[in-house]
Batch of 2 targets.
Target 1
Amino acid sequence: MSAQQNTGVRKTVRQFALALVACLAVAGGAAVAAADDGAAVQQQHAGVTNEWPFATPTPVAPTN
């Protein structure tokens, strides 16, 4: 290998290592942010719920 090829390989390895460290830092930060630290966390879930002020039909007596 020539000196120029060694420089190219070193640069590629350095960039890969930097990208790996950056990804691990982001993943670690996300894991810390998502970790349950014992505090009660209220989560919101999409879907049908009866807790919102939806109009519930009230029964009406039939009139004849």
Target 2
Amino acid sequence: MSKQVIEFNGEPVGVVVPDHDRLKFLAVKYHVWALDAQRFSSVEEAQAAIRGLFAGPPVRANPTQAGLAA
């Protein structure tokens, strides 16, 4: 394998390139920059990480509802 373009919803967002025994992700779009230079064991693992970014952060409880208000 040389390099492979990674798309999300039909838009190229990065490439993976071989890096020793792993694949290194190189971001080409700002919204996946958090994954830049991370290494993955497969293209599918990189794609799953990208999907995870677009899923958004976990919902946090409102501090007043969680009993944490001062």
